[in-house]
Amino acid sequence: MAKTILFIEDEVALQQTLGELLKEEGFNLLQAYDGEEGLKMTKENKVDLILLDIILPKKRGLDILEEIKKDSKTTNVPVIVFTNLEDTKDISRAMELGIAAYIVKANYTLDDTVKKIKETLSK
Amino acid sequence: MIRIDIGFYKDCKRYNISLWECPTFVFILMGFLEIVVMLGTFVVGQKYFGPEVIIPAVFVAAVIIFISGGIIVKNFEKLAETNRLKSEFVSIVSHQLRSPINAIKWSVEFLNKHTGKIDSIEAKYLDLIEQNNTKMLKLVTDLLNVSRLDKGEIQFKNEPVEIDTLIRKVAKSLEPLAASRNVKIKLDLDENLQQVKGDELYLNIVINNFIDNAIKYSKDKGGKVRVRARQEDSRIRVEVEDEGVGIGEKDKKLIFSKFFRGSNAKQEQIDGTGLGLFIGQSIIKNLGGKISFHSKLGEGTTFWFTLPVATSPKARGK
Going by C-beta distance under 8 Å and a sequence separation of 6 or more, which residues neighbour residue B132? Predict the structure, then answer.
């Protein structure tokens, strides 16, 4: 069965590139464009992987991550965090909370990103 | 006085500048100078004149020193503040620019993956967009790194790094650039090199800048870029040698300065920001290594750095 990925990212360009590509790859994709919507979708759907941007409107990525980890239903869902910058405090905090990986968007091509997503799902 | 003493250390830390550039330190120094000048005027004056001359003389000397000191300290403060604001501005702008640049990068890549729907003219212009976007990303990333190094924001890791694996990876990623300039990258790495102590992410930047420069400054002549890694006692030395245009005597002193570009670079219109070597030097110094170069105009340049080996080498997975 196709795996379900939740992509929480406010930038339309990223949703329409990476998002589209993931659909083409056969994943079942849920898309959220702000933090509150994203968090709601983690509670209402059974997802296999969450892609989470750090800087989001309405609710910060790190706050969402904290709630995902607190909720027993979602605590074991792997999360890949998206960021613009490597080695920041936000990333250290995200690692403490427990993430599968983080992706510095500027250093990753679309292909590399999809590869990383597949790797994480197959673990 | 005590309050100033505590305050100025904080000030200098905020501006992230050396003691000699620190406004408050200069202020204290001026104070001492003023006392010395007043005493000096008094001692010298006493030899030749009576009190009716000495008192106004000391007073005038004190006023002159006080006013000029005040002006100097004010200007120092302004400079330091401007520098801090500039760093902050660069950091915010470059950070903000990364998002849209990345959106362009992924959009172009997405289109290129669907080439069946793109004709050859579109592909050509997409290529142009991609090349220029890559340049822009490199520039913005360089600026961001400079500002973070300036502000001391980067927390360098101190981990064992397989330097030979890293060199191979970087060299491979620069193969296309080398091929387009008719340059051959030759690797000459000692076998069984120990790991170095450092930060892979930032060492990648240094090695990338070295090889990238070597290729670019080889110009149209083609030729070879040799990358060596040698074990030297408890250090590892990495060298990148080119057969390119070389560096002029005048430029040698300034080659590691921020935004400096050699006269060759300007003449030959070689791409660059003048930040790569500055960033490289800051990184290597922060990691406890040495960095330098030797060069002969028209014959070529060798840049090198050394780093300490990792004390407890992890078992190599080979």
Answer: none
